[in-house]
Design a protein that fits this description.
The protein has a six-stranded antiparallel barrel. By secondary structure, the protein is an alpha+beta fold. Helices cover 25% and strands 35% of the residues. The chain is built from four helices and six strands, in the order H-E-E-E-H-E-E-H-H-E.
Length: 159
């Protein structure tokens, strides 16, 4: 069953963000890597997430083996965070993906720099070298913002 990004979350995804993509291979061995961009598709149930296979080579392998990923997005300015989980498949990287990745990395760099992190420290974290795209069909969305709602399903009744 797919979950849809609602208006509140849509606003969140328009902010400068950081991203961590995680998967496990068929033996259960975890792998994670920093995301370098995303594209929320028109149905709002599907998201393309990008990462560097050069920097995170085990991540692509794990996604190809199990087809399951979790992508956690964090706003560096206030730590508001959400995790999207679901099934994913790798697809070919296209020119528009690289453009989107470059915009994502520039926005993240500018945001982190405004918070006092030097560009020379950020540069090694974000690279589009050997960029790969995983198409995620969203089945679960969790609040990951530190506090009493952390770990709750987004939109779930907390009473």
């Amino acid at each position: 069953m797919a979950m849809r990004i609602d208006e509140r979350l849509l606003d969140f995804f328009n902010r400068p963000l950081m991203c961590i993509i995680a998967a496990a291979d068929e033996s259960g061995r975890p792998s994670a890597g920093r995301g370098i961009g995303f594209d929320l598709l028109q149905d709002r149930e599907t998201m393309d997430v990008m990462f560097s296979a050069w920097q995170w080579p085990r991540l692509e392998h794990a996604i190809l083996q199990t087809g399951k990923i979790a992508a956690t997005f964090v706003s560096p300015s206030d730590y508001v965070s959400f995790q999207l989980k679901g099934v994913a498949e790798m697809r070919d990287t296209q020119a528009h993906d690289l453009e989107r990745a470059n915009r994502f990395m520039a926005a993240a760099t500018d945001e982190l720099e405004s918070l006092g992190v030097g560009r020379h420290l950020i540069a090694p974290w974000l690279t589009a070298r050997e960029a790969r795209v995983a198409r995620l069909r969203i089945s679960e969305i969790y609040v990951q913002t530190p506090g009493p709602l952390a770990g709750m399903l987004a939109g779930a009744d907390t009473r």
